[in-house]
């Protein structure tokens, strides 16, 4: 499972399934673009989308 899969799967676990569904659809749409730039971004930064504010501050 890629870092972006893990990050986006955590979004729905925050108590609102609508966010999880939207996150999954967004990730699927991004991957569907088949753009090198999008893949590069997801590999490096998508994991942060699954973190809480406290988790972001800890680094």
Structure, explained:
- By secondary structure, the chain is mainly alpha-helical.
- It has one domain (3-58).
- It has four helices and no strands.
- It has helices at 3-11, 17-32, 36-45, 53-58.
- Helix 1 packs antiparallel against helix 2.
- It is flat, with a radius of gyration of 12 Å.
- The two termini are 22 Å apart.
- The model has no long low-confidence stretch (mean pLDDT 80).
Comma- or semicolon-separated keywords:
4 helices; about 60 residues; about 0% strand
Give unreliable regions as ranges. Answer: none
Helix content: 55-70%
Distance between the termini: 22 Å
Biggest pleated-sheet summary: none
Q: Got a strand count? A: 0
> What is the N-to-C order of secondary-structure elements (H for helix, E for strand)?
HHHH
Label the structural class: mainly alpha
What is the mean predicted local confidence, pLDDT? 80
Tell me, briefly, the overall form: flat
- Rg, rounded, reads 12 Å
- SS element count, helices: 4
Beta content: under 5%
Number of domains: 1
Assembly category: single chain
């Amino acid at each position: 499972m890629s870092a972006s899969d893990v990050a986006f799967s955590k979004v729905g676990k925050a108590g609102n399934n609508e966010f999880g569904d939207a996150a999954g659809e967004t990730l699927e749409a991004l991957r569907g673009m088949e753009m090198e730039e999008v893949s590069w971004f997801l590999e490096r930064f998508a994991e942060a989308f699954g973190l809480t504010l406290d988790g972001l501050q800890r680094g």
